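Data availability (excerpt). The following record was deposited with the supplementary files.
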Amino acid sequence: MRRAIPGTGRALPEDLTEAITRAGYYPSLVCDVVESAIADDEVVSHLVHQETTFDHETVRRHVTVLVVTPLRLVIAHADDHAESEDKLMATATTETVPLAAVRGVMLTHVVAQPDTFTPGTHGRDLTLTLGWGAVSRLDMIPAQCGDPDCTADHGFEGTIASDDISLRISSAADGEDAVGRAMHFARVLSASIGGGTAH
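Predicted structure:
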């Protein structure tokens, strides 16, 4: 079911509109920019993540909306932006990535008391990392050899990592349902870039 965005004739799926509204960060603005980026595509899955950061004495809010359509990954960010001490602005940015360009979906699970972990339950924290090649990071370390007494210079070795976006979802801060929604979104996106389907 689609619900009209206030003040427009356009509509997003009702559950996506509700998730953006629940995040509480200028929902009319966020809904509008997300709808513009999605256009008339079908929404296969979505994830809305809101976080609050503290910059010196300033509280800043940030919301990220991820949407999977049949052919695209749509990413929307909205942030607080202080133009001056007494004038607050918001910046909203969208990016569209073809699913064929998404290189990886990585989930990092943090589990308390792993010896008593029950399969099918959620961990304490979850980090969702997506890469599509827009940002690459090169980690370099001195190369080592197997001889502990060796003093020769073996140059450097490194790894190239692509982590264009990384979201941390905490069951304590965001709730267990939020962790479950993030895992579901990751499954759908993983299946979509792997040539399968997951709904």
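Summary of structural features: The chain is about 20% helix and 45% strand.
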